[in-house]
Amino acid sequence: MLRWLPENISTYGQGVDNLFHAIYYITLIVLILVMATLIVFLIKYRHQEGKRATYIEGSTTLEIVWTAATTVIVFVLAMFSYPQWNKIKSPNSFPEKPDVVVQVSGKQFNWDMTYPGPDNEFETDDDLTLENELHVPINAVVHIRLTSIDVIHSFFVPQLRLKQDALPNRFINVWFEATKAGRYEIPCAELCGFGHSGMLGYLNVHAQADYDAWVQERWPQQAEGGQ
Amino acid sequence: MHDNEHTEQHHEESFISKYIFSLDHKMIGKQFLIYGLLMFFLGGGLALLFRWQLAYPEKPLPVIGASQQYMEEGEVVTGADRMWERIYESEKEEWLEVNMPNGVVEPAFYNMLFTMHATVMVFFVVVPLLVGAFGNFLIPLMIGTRDMAFPILNMLSFWFAVLAAIIMMTGFFVPGGHAAAGWTGYTPLSSDAQWTGVEWGQILWGLSLFVQGLSSLVGSINYITTIINMRAPGMTFFRMPLVIWSLFIVAILLLLAFPVLSSAIVLLVFDRLAGTTFFTATPEGGGDPLLWQHLFWFFGHPEVYILILPGMGIASELIAVFSRKPIFGYRSMVYAMIAIAFLGWIVWGHHMFQSGMRPGLGSIFMTTTMLIAVPSAIKTFNWLGTMFRGSIRFTTPMLHGIAFVSMFVIGGLSGIYMANTPVDIYVHDTYYIVAHIHYVVFGGSLFAIFGGIIFWFPKMYGRYMNDALSKIHFWLTFIAFNCTFFPMHILGVGGHMRRISNPQQYEFLQGFEGMNIFITMSAFTLGFAQLILVFNFFWSIYKGKVAEQNPWHVTTLEWEAPTPVPHGNFGQIPTVYRGPYEYSVPGEESDWIPQAQPEHAPATSGD
User: Which of A42, B243, B260, B424 is deepest in the core (most CB within 10 A)?
Assistant: First the structure.
């Protein structure tokens, strides 16, 4: 089933996929064991003439065993998950000093991508806003300042394994580092109105040289712009 | 038993007091049952309309859709074309013209369809069936009393539910259409008409749920009071059947949870009508859209357990009766349900991992959520333990009980993916969650409901349901259910978002067209299979094979009452001498000992 996962292109995506695989195999084994037991019981203990059921009220030992076993599995899984979650979502553990900062604003039914320009400050004259096109360099830490100007949207890039809701009047920071050049879709994952289906932006991951050329083209007066 | 010794104190009742404004818990239970089955068709029909759009985006519906020639050249070919021709020619803006011109589902209409599908199924089908129908019918009979503590409140509970349904139906026909912000009604999409164009629909949606909340409130007060105060002599709490335990716990959850939703709805309606900004994040307003999500899910997660716990209770009865064995670990089953109910209050944040809630909270909610695996596992293993060394009868109710257990296992395991915060980043709001909820609420609760209907039908109507039809219905439903919902896990793994009307707009979803068509075909099969159930239900009320008083040889008290159960239920209130699952007791000739059979009584033949 996991072959249906889209290709991962982010530095932390592999961690998400590893947990996905771990849970997949744990649940698959449990499912097979439970179903096999069920089927064996159904066949073996089907009603047969002259054979009575055995009166069993329960077993405290068994109850303790399966309660403890499940609890242990749950906590082990949780232990492996905390660091992964913090790495992706907790602003305290983001890589310091982003290479690129972009503000992404959801609006019915487009994504506005705003670059701060050479001065690295938002809401100044050299800001550049593009509709639905996000350009970033490969192997660089990108910080997204996510917001919305109307309802709740959700910024979703399946290949990055990144999803974050965008809220009106609130800025939420997320980050990623893409490891493969290409053009990827950015659907909206939270119902946002009649145009929700088809609200679609694009993430363009460029090789460094191509990205530099793109910056040069957009802000010709500043060679090192967008840093 | 002593059918005729019972003295009928009540005079002959009029049609209205017997069938309409009835105070008898059994009639109110049947009213809820028929109400739930009718709404089940509405909810299912809505799903089929949007499933068509998902399989064949922007293509006209079968039968009522216009033909290719008509849409391209305006040439009237089929009867449907003539209908559309008439609609377009009329001066009035017709409902069909606005919502699905030529039989093609419009995106805004699509949003309304899935919103109402979920709203109807959750609030007007599963809760009325599980809690309204089974709760009313079973509680007084199974604890051994003559009726509910407050019969008038009980009647009001049903008629509030009818009023709520009428208000909800009205919403379909108001200008602007019905609510289209999802059954979760996330703000600010739902709190301001400018974002959806929905005016009165959203307000009627809220009003209807508010009234439905009153229905649940009076119902749950009644259940709690009845169970605490009116148990038959000898019926201690730990001699109550598990289905009564589940309904007792659910009544407490309903009593505490629904007022939270009602309050949130009042705030939402204020935002809509009075210009308040509880859920709007303007700097001057001071509100917050996330407040709605916290309130909604603080109600919503207990609500999810309200939808499944009585299913667990019913399945426990079916499995014990048809394995001819006591429930394995009866007390741990009770404690597991209490644990699920308690954990249900401290997991709501798992719906909000990606909402912008502080990430540290995500870790806490992940831990509490994954802990639910523990009582769920206890229950599953105990059901297996109950079948272990049993003498399993494959009656149709038992098939439903087995289906419940196996589907609940899949639904429970798939929940772990969403509970896990890093994996949830990816699968949140995809078809994975759609698969999960349907495995729990359809695969779980509805199979239990079907099994329960067939099981208690002989006590409700004095007849059996037709077994051949029941079996066909079971197998068709079981297969079509899995064909419909299992592939949704795969869609989820592929990243397919929920609530999108046209997956073909996305490059990365191109590979799923065939799967979406397969799901839709399975969904139509699933829908048509339910016609068999409803036909069988109504046909059997009049034509079914007449049933004896206790056809399945069950120990619990409802089968002590004569069939059909008279007003007042029992001639003499039975006394309870033992637990509810005394099957295959060693040294006894019969393989079941009724709860009401006195100790050291002369051995009975078992019938």
Answer: B243
Domain map (residue ranges) of chain A: 2-47+54-92, 100-218
What pTM was computed for the model?
0.94
Interface test with A, best of B497, B504, B585 (most A CBs within 10 A): B497
As given in the structure block, the two tokens for residue B205 are 């949606």
Strands A133-137 and A141-148: unpaired
Closest-CA distance, A222 to chain B, in angstroms, reads 35
Distance, in Å, from the CA atom of B580 to the CA atom of B20, rounded to the nearest integer, reads 33
Q: What is the pLDDT of residues A160-190, one digit of tens each?
A: 999 999 999 999 999 999 999 999 999 999 9
CB neighbours of residue B194 within 10 Å: 10
Q: DSSP character for A202?
A: E
CA distance B316 to chain A (A): 14
Q: Is the pLDDT of residue B180 over 70?
A: yes
State whether the Cα torsion B190-B191-B196-B198 is positive or negative: positive
pLDDT surpassing 90 at residue B603: no
Report which DSSP code applies to A46: B
Residue B313's Cβ-side half-sphere holds a number of Cα atoms within 13 Å equal to 29
Match 């099981």 to its residue by tokens. B455
**Which of B500, B183, B492, B51 minimizes the C-alpha distance to A187?**
B500
Token pair 């990606």 in the structure block, residue: B354
Q: Give the count of alpha carbons within 13 A of B326, CB side only.
A: 22
According to CATH, what is the number of the domain B18-59+104-543? 1.20.210.10
Residues in chain A predicted with pLDDT less than 70, given as ranges, are: 222-227
Per-residue pLDDT tens for B485-523? 999 999 999 999 999 999 999 999 999 999 999 999 999
Q: Flag whether residue B347 sits within 8 Å of chain A, measured between CB atoms.
A: no
Question: What integer pLDDT is reported at residue B285 of this predicted model?
Answer: 78
Of B106, B371, B382, the CB nearest to A74: B371
Cα–Cα dist B219/B185, whole Å: 25
Q: Quick one: DSSP state of residue A102?
A: E
Of chain A, the end-to-end C-alpha distance in Å amounts to: 41
Burial B104-124 (b: 16+ CB within 10 A, else e): bbbbbbbbbbbbbbbbbbbbb
3-class state of residue A188 by DSSP:
strand
Q: Flag if A20 and B417 touch (Cβ within 8 Å).
A: yes
| DSSP per-residue codes, B46-86 | HHHHHHHHHHSTT-PPTTTSPPHHHHHH----SHHHHHHHH
Q: Is B342 left (phi over 0), alpha (psi -120 to 50) or beta?
A: alpha
Work out the minimum CA distance from B200 to partner chain A, whole angstroms. Answer: 16
Query: B59-89 burial by CB neighbour count: b if 16+ within 10 A, else e?
Result: bbbeeebbbeebbeeeebeeebbeebeebee
d(CA A122, CA A143): 13
Determine whether the interchain pair B500/A197 forms a contact, defined as Cβ–Cβ distance below 8 Å: yes
Lowest mean pLDDT among B208-212, B273-277, B339-343: B273-277
Q: Which residue, B504, B492, B494, is CA-closest to B59?
A: B504
Dihedral through CA B428, CA B432, CA B433, CA B438, nearest 10? 180
Sheet of A110-115: strand order equals A128-131, A110-115, A100-107, A141-148, A172-177
pLDDT at B410: 97
Report the CATH fold assignment for A2-47+54-92.
Answer: Helix Hairpins (1.10.287)
- For B314, other C-beta atoms within 10 Å of its C-beta total 31
Burial class (CB in 10 A: 0-12, 13-18, 19+), B421: buried
pLDDT value, residue A226: 44
Structurally, what CATH architecture does the domain formed by A100-218 represent?
Sandwich (2.60)
- Kindly report the average pLDDT of chain A as a whole number: 94
Question: Do A2-47+54-92 and A100-218 have matching folds?
Answer: no
d(CA B485, CA B473): 18
